[in-house]
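Review form for a predicted model. The reviewer records the input and the model, then writes brief findings.
Reviewer: anonymous (R2)
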Amino acid sequence: MIIAELVMHSALNEMFHKFSEQIMGVNTASLLQGGKRPKSKHAYILAYFKAFNNPDSDISDVKGLIGMFHFGMLCGGADLDMQEIMTCPHGLKTLPTVEARRGMSGCVFTGDGEQWATALRNAGQWELNSVREWGMACYRQFAKYDLDILIGKMRLGKFDGIDGYLLDN
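Model under review:
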């Protein structure tokens, strides 16, 4: 069994609102408070960026800015499973534990939103069960914080003879 927990995401310095107001003449935080906003509070940073880019745009639709967001996921599981996950070409930065405890090991995976979306899409079609299980565990963390809308909704099924999943855009 693979466990995962979203342990880090981008933070916005409070000076962003002050400086963007000096540049644009509009307070991005006020735009978000007064209009449509993303479902996830974690995605507000992207809405602030979108409001900065174009105050008249639909600031609730931030999917196109996912690459400007960074996530860290702490994952753990059996030694062999974690080794398989870390060696598959997922494109994320990895920071594994130094030594395993009782046959378990862990790793912090980090990447921007586009890297995570690609890694999770690929994991759903991977031939190793451990990689697909890792992808599902990480996806559930994104869904827990309503960030699944940024990477796609999961659809379970059998694809090319493999039980896995697809992420719909």
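Findings: The chain has two domains: 9-67, 70-168.
Further findings: The mean pLDDT is 89.
Recommendation: see findings above.
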